[in-house]
């Protein structure tokens, strides 16, 4: 609801000139502490989401490395760290720590250098919104509640799912168009003020 309100009200008020960053897009920089708190909340929110989305990639690379170099202690050896209050110790793997940290740093630096970060985030959000936020939860609800096919409730839920799919496709198309327009104007990894 909050995201939809921001998007709809921003578009209603400013049309295509709505800034990508609602906090600073209008030249609002004071009080600085309020922007710092808002940006910290955004970082906390995105770090968690980023970690969830990257887990399959992390697992794939770690499984591949274990299969390719099974004799390398750096890759396969776990160090057990006892933690008071827990029955089992925490298992620290240095390869996992180094690989994941390097990946996060690299992707963060690349994303900061891109001048069209908002459009790239829009593409990723559009691809992730419908399946993760709408389709799977709706289908799980239908299965859990055993809602019969073609009942009124089933049809309404499917209509909601299809409407959100159309919104996701439109958002992805808009974001791709934004990236294409940005690529015509900007040179990658160059920023201007």
UniProtKB/TrEMBL annotation:
> Where is this gene product found?
Membrane
Origin superkingdom: Eukaryota
Domain (Amino acid transporter transmembrane) spans 1-180
List where the protein spans the membrane: 32-53, 97-117, 123-142, 154-181
Q: Name one Pfam family in it.
A: Aa_trans
Keyword terms of this UniProt record = Amino-acid transport, Membrane, Transmembrane, Transmembrane helix, Transport
One GO BP annotation is: amino acid transport
Q: Name one GO cellular component term.
A: membrane
Q: Which PANTHER family match?
A: OS05G0424000 PROTEIN-RELATED
* UniProt protein name: Amino acid permease
Q: What is the lineage of its organism?
A: Eukaryota, Viridiplantae, Streptophyta, Embryophyta, Tracheophyta
